[in-house]
Specification:
This protein is an alpha/beta fold and 438 residues long. It is built from 13 helices and 19 strands. The strands form five sheets. The chain has a six-stranded parallel beta sheet, with helices on both faces. Helix 9 runs parallel beside helix 11. The longest helix is centred in the C-terminal third of the chain and has 24 residues. It binds S-adenosyl-L-homocysteine, iron/sulfur cluster (SF4) and FE3-S4 cluster. The site of iron/sulfur cluster has 10 residues, from helix 6.
Length: 438
């Protein structure tokens, strides 16, 4: 038996990175690493990074800089960079940051145990291959202790859409769908280990085509798993919302009434320049169809403001689209020029102008979010409780619409779904009382 080493992983970026971080911890766990809660306690620190915007990528370098004193005090500490910055910058990270021992891309992290061994021997290791083999087939089975009431399951990776602003097709590679039979057995395993809710993940999750039917078919199949009570999926591209998937929202009780459907802009001119390949009108028609299938669905989105060439009229069209849809929440970002993407060649919008637009957009979204939260007061919803709340006697979980809900209830309800009457709406959470602790 080798001595247990301590591992700390910090995850940046999207939920797929969160999932990957769990699987990395498990892969290294099988090689004798135990997860700890801070870099200070660790023998190995892994930063699982995001390259989506300049700020996200630069944060990695400032965090690495902050690890310098720790490595000075503890020369045996190994530092690794994983994820999308690792994929995009590879060896360059080793050149720029002498304290980094290991660089591993999102498609090769099943090789981490071997890399960790090489690094322990004093080498520096880089692996940013898109290997032939499927990493999921080379990862250990998921241990029970890492599965909570809600679990992620990556069903699809990569992106072939090449939106003009986006690095994901370069950092994650081409679209690959995991085969249906594998996903069913992994989902059964998750439920067996205590998961009641599974969120299917993919950079373009609704482009999944690993079975006879599309994602709607996979959802219908997963809904048959005994004990799986809730299904969600993210992130979807509007052009891949096919009729069967839309119909599933009306027909599959386990499929939660929530959909993140990024649109980025409400201006046809900008949508075209972004290579989103649909119009604002087409998006609005799609929203109508989805709401016809599931009237109470809560929609969220992503927006980019200040894309090259965006005029005040284009921005006004985005605000008009937001007014027309009525979102429950949204992420909005100032455009960030990313190296290697087509849009990066074009002159940007005046930064002060972009800031001002972002504020106006966020104010509108905040109003809509508040309205959606307040609309819940007095209503009953089901909540899957996940953990103790911040206040004593409270537990917290998510509504069907993915809103955070706090309730004064016994801790034994953690991991359970209960009916809750909502009594108060705060900007980012709801409070309620359990009416049926079944
Ligand atoms: N696959 C998802 C998005 C992944 S990136 C989709 O197609 O919707 C998450 C969000 O980051 C995007 O929806 C977009 O709003 C934002 N984003 C991506 N690239 C960006 C850039 N260069 N500048 C600013 N925001 C960006
Ligand atoms: Fe990026 Fe567009 Fe692919 Fe989403 S669909 S990951 S925004 S290229
Ligand atoms: Fe970021 Fe990579 Fe996800 S760039 S958003 S971590 S796919």
């Amino acid at each position: 038996m080798t001595e247990t080493k301590k591992l700390f992983i910090k995850s940046y970026g999207c939920q797929m990175n969160v999932y990957d971080s769990e699987r990395m911890a498990e892969a290294l766990g099988a090689a004798g690493y135990e997860s700890v809660g801070s870099a200070e306690e660790a023998d190995m620190v892994l930063l699982n990074t995001c390259h989506i915007r300049e700020k996200a990528a630069e944060k990695v370098y400032s965090d690495l800089g902050r690890l310098r004193p720790l490595k000075g005090a503890k020369p045996d500490l190994k530092i690794g960079v994983a994820g999308c910055v690792a994929q995009a910058e590879g060896e360059e990270i080793l050149r720029r940051m002498p304290l980094v021992d290991l660089v591993v891309g999102p498609q090769s992290y099943h090789r981490l145990p071997a890399m960790a061994e090489a690094v322990a021997g004093g080498a520096r290791a880089v692996d940013t291959d898109f290997p032939e083999e499927d990493k999921f087939e080379h990862l250990p089975e998921r241990p029970r202790r890492s599965i909570g009431p809600t679990a992620f399951l990556t069903v699809q990776e990569g992106c072939d859409k090449f939106c003009a602003f986006c690095v994901v097709p370069y950092t994650r590679g081409a679209e690959v769908s995991r085969p249906e039979a594998r996903l069913i057995s992994e989902a059964e395993g998750l439920v067996d280990k205590g998961a009641k809710e599974i969120t299917l993940l993919g950079q373009n999750v609704n482009a999944w085509h690993g079975g006879q039917a599309g994602l709607g078919g996979l959802i219908r199949r997963l809904a048959k798993i005994e004990g799986l009570e809730r299904i969600r999926y993210t992130t979807s591209h509007p052009n891949d919302m096919d009729d069967d998937l839309i119909a599933a929202h009306g027909e599959v009780a386990e499929l939660m009434p929530y959909l993140h459907l990024p649109v980025q802009s409400g201006s046809d001119r900008i949508l075209k320049a972004m290579a989103r390949k649909h119009t604002a009108e087409a998006y609005l028609r799609l929203v109508e169809k989805i709401r016809a299938a599931r009237p109470d669905i809560l929609l969220t989105s992503d927006f980019i403001v200040g894309f090259p060439g965006e005029t005040e009229a284009d921005f006004a069209a985005t605000l008009a689209l937001i007014e027309a849809v009525g979102y429950g929440a949204a992420f909005s970002f100032k455009y960030s020029a990313r190296p290697g993407t087509p849009a990066a060649e074009k002159p940007g919008v005046d930064p002060a102008e972009a800031d001002e637009r972002l504020q106006r957009l966020q104010a509108l979204i905040t109003r809509q979010q508040r309205a959606a939260q307040e609309a819940m007061v007095g209503r009953e919803t089901s909540v899957l409780f996940e953990k103790p709340g911040r206040m004593a006697g409270q537990i917290t979980g998510k509504s069907e619409h993915l809103q955070a809900v706090h309730a004064e209830a016994p801790e034994r309800l953690i991991g359970e779904i209960a009916r809750v009457r909502i009594t108060r709406a705060d900007p980012n959470s709801l409070a309620g009382t359990v009416v049926d602790p079944a």
